[in-house]
Amino acid sequence: MAETVRFGVAMDADLLARFDEWVAARGQATNRSEAVRDLVRDVLATEITEDPDAPVVGTVTMVFNHHTSDLSERLDALQHDHFREIYTKLHVHLTAHDCLEVVILRGRSRDVRALADKLLGTKGVKHGKLVITTTG
Ligand code: NI
Known about the structure:
The protein is α+β, with helices and mostly antiparallel strands and about 140 residues long. It folds into 2 domains: about 15-50; about 55-135, Alpha-Beta Plaits (2-Layer Sandwich). Helix content is about 40%, strand content about 30%. The protein has helices spanning about 15-25, 30-50, 70-80, 110-120, and strands spanning about 55-65, 85-95, 100-110, 125-135. A 4-stranded antiparallel sheet has the order 2-3-1-4. Strand 2 and strand 3 form a beta hairpin. Bound molecules: nickel (II) ion (NI).
């Protein structure tokens, strides 16, 4: 366990008031210090994942209509082509027509982003998003 160091922060009162509102909105279990630590970790994790060679994990969430031509087959083929970068996927039949898929990816940041772009850019995918993170 690393040594804990305390330090003070000078901040504009209005900015601090807005920060306190944001902290309060996150729930009673948190406080300023915890919120600042979370923000610092988030910034550092984002910086790490922006290195194209960094090992990362990511989730691609996407919604599509499975009746759209051969979309399901095209998405499956793409995922087979990249089986090394895919841990698993969850498929939920949202309605009689619409599907939700969450695909969990791993690999170097550039490869995970490229595969996510291919999945989300597949014709017929209505919308979706990549969330990328790291264990570091
Ligand atoms: Ni489905």
